[in-house]
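Question (not urgent): is this output format expected?
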Amino acid sequence: MAAGSLLALLDDIATILDDVAAMSKVAAKKTAGVLGDDLALNAQQVTGVNAERELPVVWAVAKGSFKNKAILVPAALAISAFVPWLITPLLVIGGAFLCYEGFEKLAHKFLHSKEEDDQRRAELAAAVANPAVDMCAMEKEKIKGAVRTDFILSAEIIVIALGTVENAPFSQQVLVLTTIALAMTAGVYGLVAAIVKMDDAGLSLSQKASGLARGTGKLLLAAAPKLMKFLSIAGTAAMFMVGGGIIAHAWEPLHHFAEGAAQVTAGVPGVGGVLAAITPTIVDALAGVVLGALVLMVVTLVQRMRGKKAAH
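Got this back:
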């Protein structure tokens, strides 16, 4: 009897862990839109930091990220337990924010002139070169800014993950959110550390005697800026797809439209299967772009109105 009970218990635990793994995988896929942007943003945060301080800065931000998750995960679980009706509105807000961030990036070159961007880079370079500038204070400000950015992105990740397990037992919600929080933080900041040191590794290898090492070093030096650009582009595209997908699931007319469009494209000879598979994602992304434009327009109007009031 005892052995049977133990086996039954182990089977239950194995089933729960299997469910948790499956739900964690789903949650991870749905948070992918935030992660690409998260990587690019955090790698950019250490721009201007002395090379020997890059990893300590990344570690400091990572610790701040763990603290953020320690606040956000219990808060999300409390919402799920006591006000579960709030999950969908929070998901919609998070989805809209993702779309807004994505469209703001697309519109950046229209909202900010090249001269403004060049001036900001020149000021940063001058600050790094100026011996009178307190680099410790500058580093601390960078860390604070990165941790604030991480809090917003972490909140998006946790809310999206919570939406995938809102109907699961509370114990599984705890395991899934904890798994996502730990895995995402370790994964993101591990990759950020690798990215920011990629050029240093390339420079070191390029100075070796071995031809293979020099070739590898030059490849890394050439790949580092391209990787940053790819992460930024991929992250922005994924933000529209994930944000638009969240809105589509919350707004049935858009969801039905995507399904109908998939059925229409399924009839295209030869490529119907492929088109049917990608059409909902394309519809979600387009909806994300439209929503992002609308939110940006509202935010811009509000900022201008506040600016006019402040001027008076």
